[in-house]
Amino acid sequence: MARKHRAGHRDASPRTDTSTDIETDERRMFEMGTSNALLASDSSDRSKDKTSDQKTLRRLAQNREAARKSRLRKKAYVQQLESSRVKLTQLEQELQRARQQGIFISSSGDQSHSLSGNGALAFDVEYARWLEEHNRQVNELRTAVNSHASDNELRVIVDGVMAHYVEIFRLKGNAAKTDVFHMLSGMWKTPAERCFLWLGGFRSSELLKLLINQLEPLTEQQLMGICKLQQSSQQAEDALSQGMEALQQSLAETLAGSLGPSSSSGNVANYMGQMAMAMGKLGSLEGFLRQADNLRQQTLQQMHTILTTRQSARALLAINDYFSRLRALSSLWLARPKE
């Protein structure tokens, strides 16, 4: 009996130990879970703090960038104001110099047209500046030709002169948008130049006729190319001249449509309608001037393509000398003794 009691006691002891072990394990697991939860919570808090710090840093960086751009804009604005002031001073000085050179002198004594608007006035100043630079480039070209410079050296100078011609056509196009009459009448040129004026500039076909004798010797192919270019230029000029004549005739007919008293309301309305039609027709003048300048520019470029580099240099010098003599003739004519 005693053995059974001891045996039973031994059997009960392992179960008690097992129960204790389970409780200990559960307590440890609970403590570990609580610890992990606390760690996860701390990690989440740190992540939120880190995200908040990153947002703050981004905002600060954005604010610094915005402030930097604002300073740059302010600096650019101040520089623009200073540049505008300098340009205005230069414009006033060049205008005074242009007046002293007689650019605004009109053979008819009417100077009001050339001063009729800011566009025309600005172009006259720009033209004086362009002519000064053109003379400098031509002198450089003449020196290179006389010193027998290489074709490569000549090509650079010739290309510069050709590009400078493109610039004057661009300036004329812009000025025509504000005062097309100023450009067509050639009030920015000397009286002798205006005598040979055609639609605000030179006749390409007439210029080519003058150049043929100046460019000899020419190969047969070059001579044929120049002659064809002269003929095509003549045809284009004739077409534009006919268009201008048709425009003038149409404009005259519109203005003369109802000559007579305009006291009644009906006549006044008719008069205003005719003026509106005439204004619309005058708007096409800018197109004629633009086409004429395009023809002049294309003729110069095609001539340059036909000729060699050295021949192109001689042609540009001949063109410059021709117009320079026209300007000199004007000065002599205006300075002649008056009886």
TrEMBL record:
PROSITE patterns found in the cross-reference section: BZIP (PS50217), BZIP_BASIC (PS00036), DOG1 (PS51806)
Pfam families the UniProt entry points to: bZIP_1, DOG1
Chain ranges of the DOG1 domain: 120-336
CC per GO annotation: nucleus
Chain spans, region Disordered: 1-57
Residue span(s) of domain BZIP: 53-97
Keywords noted in UniProt: Coiled coil, DNA-binding, Nucleus, Transcription, Transcription regulation
Gene Ontology BP, a term: DNA-templated transcription
Coiled coil: 74-101
Compartments, as annotated in UniProt: Nucleus
Family statement drawn from the similarity comment of this UniProt entry: Belongs to the bZIP family.
PANTHER family cross-referenced by the UniProt entry: TRANSCRIPTION FACTOR TGA2-RELATED (PTHR45693:SF46), TRANSCRIPTION FACTOR TGA9 (PTHR45693)
Protein name: Uncharacterized protein
Organism from which the protein derives: Stephania cephalantha
